[in-house]
Amino acid sequence: MAEIDLSPAQDRGVLKEIIKEGVGDETPTNGCKVKVHYTGTLLNGEKFDSSRDRDKPFKFVVGSNSVIKAWDIGIASMKKGEIAVLTCAPEYAYGKSGSPPSIPPDATLKFEVELLDWCGEDLSPGKDKSIQRFQLVAGQNYANPEDGSTVKIHLVGKYNDEVFEDREVEFILGEGEDVGIVEGVELALPRFLKGEKSRLLIKSKHAFKEEGNSKYKIPPNADVEYEVELQNFEKETSIWSMKPEEKIEQAKMQKEKGTKYLTSNKINLAIKVYQKVPKYLNVVTDFTDDLKKERDSLLVAAHLNLALCYLKTNENLLAKEECAKALELDPQNEKALFRRGQAHLGLASPEIAINDFQEVLKVQPKNTAASKQILICNSLIKKQLAKEKKLYANMFDKFAQEDKQKEEQKLKEQPDVMRETLGEWGQEERPGGRDATAFEKENPNILMLNANGSGEFKNM
């Protein structure tokens, strides 16, 4: 097959001749991990390197500058299973310096390369290939959106090659759930550049999970594909550059937004947003007089609402911690004490929870909810004590039974002298160890000392 000029400048710097066609239509893009076999030679045919001789394929990431420029260009044009010869001019290989001692200066190189396999760039948090990126169009500059950035994207979702959504959407990164953006897309976007267009393969755990999506006719546990273009984004204003009043305003906005998500039962989103409130307010020295009071009030509210969210998601330890933070600012806060009591109940500690509910009544004697919780705590403590009593009683009964069985076993192991044919006398106790006489067998409790006929006791 005729050589193809792959060099961007069409200067014949990277020529490819296909020896064996590959399969499919897809080729690796920047960020993809490839596995190849290769043999490298000089123009005179002298071999300087070969992965085949080592019987060990070579792996690298396309576009990561870990190989010569010609390889990044040439292998990005190959299909899986393809074998091709790449002719690489010096400026696309090792240049004027070469790579002594194998490659001389200004050397043009030939590589016979077989593309064995490749996979997309792994963007998944656990590096388990559950989110793979295949770049279609490179982005501009080096800036990436981050959590809190306002992003504008165009996305096309596919399942089994059928398009199920095609739309432009603008949202705050980290809150995509509010506009139906799957987790996998949100996790990938911080790695996008402005103007980038990429294909994402997303496993079900980062897409529609076990629930599926009836609107899009996607079954449970289904893997999906998205083509995503990051059209534009705008980062959040840096907190350090804000004035105290601006920080207060931003904290209020996040608190109100969190409450909107909470009342809509979007608990995970509410948690994300409430967690932003302390970030604006964590430097106490920024706030004086009335602003400090407002700052403390906003912090207490954020911690209380986070505690409520964690109680709803059964994360009782986190709920307890948020209540503790609220109580540091307001030691007699009725809601903080009550919710911490609920957290202790969730952690199966009614004997600790009851103290919090009793403190609530000291603050507000008419709090009927706290009174009911105290009754619940007492009932649980009573049941717990009864259970422990029964457990210990059973334990002692078991120990007593085991001791009795051991004693009985010891008695069984001792000889029963009243049942032996020799009565209370054993053969070893008769003079000379003789056998019992007929008389002794009939009278087992009598030992005839001179029964051996020795006449030893004749004179007695």
From TrEMBL:
One Pfam assignment? FKBP_C
Any one Gene Ontology MF annotation carried by this entry is: peptidyl-prolyl cis-trans isomerase activity
In the Enzyme Commission scheme, what number(s) does this protein have? 5.2.1.8
Report which residue ranges the record marks as coiled coil: none
**EC class of the enzyme, as a word:** isomerase
Statement: the UniProt record of this protein carries the keyword Isomerase: yes
Q: Which UniProt keywords apply?
A: Isomerase, Repeat, Rotamase, TPR repeat
Q: Does the keyword ATP-binding apply?
A: no
The name this protein goes by in its record:
peptidylprolyl isomerase
Q: Which organism is it from?
A: Temnothorax curvispinosus
Gene encoding this polypeptide?
Answer: LOC112454367
